[in-house]
UniProtKB/TrEMBL annotation:
GO cellular component, as recorded: membrane
PANTHER family: HYDROPHOBIC PROTEIN OSR8, HYDROPHOBIC PROTEIN RCI2 LOW TEMPERATURE AND SALT RESPONSIVE PROTEIN LTI6 -RELATED
One Pfam assignment: Pmp3
Subcellular location, principal: membrane
Organism taxonomic ancestry: Eukaryota, Sar, Alveolata, Dinophyceae, Prorocentrales
Keyword DNA-binding on entry: no
Cell compartments where the protein resides: Membrane
The entry's keywords: Membrane, Transmembrane, Transmembrane helix
Name the UniProt record assigns to this protein: Hydrophobic low temperature and salt responsive
Family, per entry: Belongs to the UPF0057 (PMP3) family.
Spans traversing the lipid bilayer: 30-56
Length: 69
């Protein structure tokens, strides 16, 4: 599934400051706090976590793609 323009923007923000990209997608919740803690421990763990969360998880309430069987 290709990335949307919004996801590309979030990934670019995550590269500069990982918690900001996560905050834009999920708000200031648990995902943001985990990313902030990992970023404070080191830039690379926060960056890896942010890219994973932005690329592979959907916010609650968001609908996934509809598959026709």
């Amino acid at each position: 599934m290709p990335l949307t323009c919004g996801e590309v923007f979030e990934l670019l923000l995550a590269y500069i400051l990982p918690p900001v990209g996560v905050c834009m997608k999920f708000g200031c919740g648990l995902q943001f706090l985990i990313c902030l803690a990992l970023t404070l421990c080191g830039y690379v763990p926060g960056l890896v976590y942010a890219c994973f969360v932005i690329g592979f998880q959907h916010p609650r309430g968001a609908r996934g793609p509809a598959f026709i069987a």
